[in-house]
Specification:
Helix content: 40-55%
Distance between the termini: 42 Å
Strand order of the largest sheet: 1-3-2-4-5
Shape: elongated
Radius of gyration: 22 Å
Number of helices: 11
Number of strands: 10
Structural class: alpha/beta
Strand content: 15-25%
Largest sheet: 5 strands, mixed
Order of helices and strands: HEHEHEHEEHHEHEHEHEEHH
Low-confidence stretches: 1-36, 258-267, 276-285
Length: about 280
């Protein structure tokens, strides 16, 4: 199924506003991991709410008509668990109307693909901490999302069909500087490519690395993958740089490297089919 390109367009005017000092401070406090005193930001008008969403990679807002329902206390508990997500609460009727909220709703807004996901009243009435945590964990896609069994679900649910994976050990001395460059490159392809980090130091991630025919001796490496047709390509690198990442992505978007990769994929697929046929014939001969 082809993606609806209109849903990938970003609301550019959100980034032209001058953020009020009060909202900027609240967002920073909400997402900087400041400890047990951390609380959701109270959003009392439409302007403040729009600004709050605009500056957060991932924002989760509880639009509550009733602050006495059990979901509110659950919502507060999530703030401590997800330190890299900005949390806000609004009970203002104009804010709820602006976002077409007709009942108690928890909404997740993410910058990377301009997506809004809702947990509406019928789900909130029976929600527990596990379900709410799962909703946030799966759908919290950032400019660079770290790969794990939960986030991969959110990645494949996004309308953005191209994923770029940086496979690198987080324990390596070059990691911090490499990630800074990778983050800069991610901003160049917002709305076009989802950027992912695969920690090669995690044993379970070995399956991802082997899927792209890479060896650990070739890392760090980039792997780019298009979900709609499973086309992919790889680029081992001595150094992660914005230029290398940009050129690799541009090449893939323009169709470069795809022919050789496609031929290799089809060749391997044909060989596997022949092997299966040979095994089938031997079993029944």
């Amino acid at each position: 199924m082809e993606a609806d390109q209109s849903r990938l367009l970003f609301l550019l005017f959100l980034f032209t506003w001058r953020l009020s000092p009060e909202v900027a401070a609240d967002v920073q406090e909400s997402s900087d991991g400041s400890g047990a005193s951390q609380k959701p930001v109270m959003l009392t008008d439409v302007q403040a709410t729009m600004e709050f969403i605009a500056v957060a990679e991932v924002a989760v807002i509880g639009f509550f008509q009733d602050l006495e329902i059990p979901a509110v206390s659950l919502f507060h508990s999530m703030v401590q668990k997800f330190q890299n997500v900005s949390f806000g609460i609004s009970t203002d009727s104009e804010v709820l109307g602006h976002y077409n909220i007709t009942g108690n709703t928890i909404s997740l807004f993410r910058l990377v693909d301009n997506k809004k996901l809702d947990l509406e009243s019928k789900y909130i009435e029976s929600i527990d901490a596990t379900k709410l945590s799962r909703f946030i964990e799966i759908n919290s896609l950032h400019l660079v999302t770290e790969y794990n069994p939960a986030t991969v679900i959110g990645l494949f649910n996004s309308m953005i069909q191209i994923h770029l994976l940086l496979m690198m050990n987080k324990a390596s001395p070059e990691y911090e500087e490499s990630m800074s460059r990778y983050q800069k490159a991610a901003k160049l392809f917002q709305g076009k490519i989802l950027f992912v980090l695969v920690d090669s130091g995690v044993e379970a991630n070995g399956k991802v690395i082997s899927f792209f025919k890479l060896k650990k001796s070739q890392l760090p490496a980039l792997a780019i993958y298009r979900t709609v047709d499973e086309e992919w390509d790889t680029l081992p690198m001595a150094e992660v740089s914005v230029e290398h990442v940009q050129n690799f992505c541009d090449g893939f978007l323009k169709g470069k490297r795809l022919v050789s990769r496609s031929l290799q994929y089809n060749k391997e697929k044909t060989m596997n089919q022949k092997k299966k046929l040979q095994r089938w014939n031997s079993d029944f001969s």
